[in-house]
Amino acid sequence: MAESKLSQDPHKLREGREKNLEIAIGREVRDLRRARGMTVADLAAAAGLSVGMLSKIENGLTSPSLTTLQGLSSALSVPVTSFLRRFEERREAVHVRAGEALEIERAGTRAGHQYNLLGHLGANSSGVVVEPYLITLSEESDVFPTFQHEGVELLYILEGEVGYRYGDQSFHLKPGDSLFFDADAPHGPDDLKKLPIRYLSVISYPQGN
């Protein structure tokens, strides 16, 4: 057991973080260059770098020195700190334990549909809000094929069978089936074929809507 512990690389975590930094810097350099309509050769010349070195930087294959970053910042007319923007962005994860999902009210609640919110990610750099739900339909539930809202939606059936209407089409969904669609059109369950019915619904829409 001691030998196994000694064989572990103590620098693995640090190296992984450094590699992520190189990739983040490279992507930012590439995006800034493209936004200015510059070729790799254009930016390399303006920053005093070889085309090969700039290519390695943009692909996250090398760690640029502070002098190199200063040259790039001058050529792109941005502060050096802008190259670190993606690396410093806050990343979020939401862990909801079994049985602890928040039950909320949505338009379908009045039809006896149980909605449990599994998490919520918004106000991020992508400009997209994502809301995953676990929806349960029981004997007390009614059909409700007239949902309409912004964004797109993905359904994944876990249990039971349901006829799900989208626009003028109706899909017979069974466990393991999925349905992905533009949520602006009328949609919702129109035939509760085999109860209870449980499915995941992941809704994504532009931030601010």
Structural class: alpha+beta
Helix content: 25-40%
> Roughly what fraction of the amino acids lie in strands?
25-35%
| Cα-atom radius of gyration | 25 Å
CATH topology of the largest domain: Jelly Rolls
Shape label:
elongated
Biggest β-sheet strands, sense, barrel: 7 strands, antiparallel
What's the CATH architecture of the largest domain?
A: Sandwich
- Under CATH at level 1, the class of the largest domain stands as Mainly Beta
The number of strands is: 7
Q: What is the CATH homologous superfamily assignment of the largest domain?
A: Jelly Rolls
pLDDT averaged over residues:
83
- What is the number of helical segments per DSSP (H or I, 4+ residues)? 6
Q: Spans of 5+ residues with little confidence (pLDDT < 50)? A: 1-8, 10-16
What order do the helices and strands follow?
HHHHHHEEEEEEE
Instruction: Indicate how many domains the architecture comprises.
Output: 2
How far is it from the N-terminal to the C-terminal residue, by CA? 55 Å
Pfam families: Cupin_2, HTH_3
GO molecular function: DNA binding; DNA-binding transcription factor activity
Organism: Roseovarius pacificus
Protein name: Transcriptional regulator, XRE family with cupin sensor
